[in-house]
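Molecular record:
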Amino acid sequence: MDLVVIVLRALAEAIALVVIGTGLLQNGIYLIQLGLAAAALIQTPPVASGGLLWRRYADAAPPIALLAPAFNEAATIAESVRSLLSLQYPSFEVIVINDGSRDETLQVLIDTFELRPVQRHFEPALAHAPIRTIYGARHQPRLIVIDKENGGKADALNAGINVSRAPIFCSMDADSLLEPDALLRAVRPFVEDPERTVAVGGTVRVVNGCVISHGRVTEVRPSRNILALLQTVEYLRAFLMARLAFSRINTLTIISGAFGLFRRVRVIEVGGYTHGTVGEDMELVVKLHRLMRDKRLPYRIAFVPEPVCWTEAPEDLRVLGRQRSRWHRGALETFERHHDVLFKPRYGRVAVVGFGYILLVDVLGPIVEVLGYLLIPLFWASGLLSTEYLLAYIAVSFTFGIVISVGALALEESELRRFPRARDLVLLTAMAVLENFGYRQLNNMWRLRGIWQYLRRSQSWGTMTRKGFSPQTKGAPE
């Protein structure tokens, strides 16, 4: 009997060491990311004035085609397109791709912008579902609407790339809002380093709670919905910390599908967006890394924190859970397709840092963390683990998480200052603490579901219900 207890205790300690060690490694990486992000913001501080941006970059800025796939977006499409058409950029066109919507998306566009069929010749460089009609706007020469059969987001973007004519295209969601100077800020790497830059990502923020008028966020406020608040902190940490840090060492493996700029010729060279995956945005960035590394060409895939794209976050647990499971499934699909990149010297830092991070955080992370939640308290309660192990686990799981979340929020406020009211910062700081007690654990359960769906080869997107943008405040009253 004593031998059985000794074996069980040794097994419990081994599991605890794996869980604590993995947690320490992850949190160590997060702290390094925070340091790299701070260094990047100090070295290249944001340009405060939109007028200065125009004087500095307008003459050299390349033409851009904004590609906005839309599927059942009738609630937000008109406001989103108005917002895009009023962007401050010298030369751009807006291409909305109606991907076989079953609601009134196309009719709303036709009625709002007085669309009519037009002839537009293009080279079918990328495969996609058939295009039914291409529309032009009577009074908006910059607007093109493609009506095509449903093929999914990747398919719709490929159609938009074919129809576009600009050397740079901007991939985005039709239900998102760009700040007026977002393109000018995002295009900086293409202007300053045109030979090497192949892709640039920008920041995506949660619009829930903000005041919106005529397709513009006129006042930044936190939401009244606790899920939206938690996602606000989560987005700050993911974009400002992780992506800025990876951009600094050229190992960025994902640019959000809600807002990213790409060199069109390189994207066509890698075959455009991949069909049959829910992680088409990550997949494209990895393919670009591989192309440039295989060709041994100098290149840069950058992230710029100043351009902001506002998106509506889910305010329902069921919808949010489906979204997070889908995101995780997409990361696993990309990792599987390009697993041969991992640790291969030919791919340099991308192979070690970029794919090593995916292996640790996305492939192993959810499994190890959930095992820790279940087993370590159980082992301690049964006497198989000492209190020291339990305290070490709590420090790794909660204390480090709080420090990193609050640190990312402090970095945002010190450099970008998006939240003008002190009470908003106090509320978000409270959320940065609270997210470690329940929300993070729930996220890991959703990621586990994503692993299960990935193993079952599910390709379902699920339903994403939206309230749409209204001119009133979407958050707490004064």
The first strand starts at residue 64 and ends at 70. DSSP finds 14 helices and twelve strands in the chain.
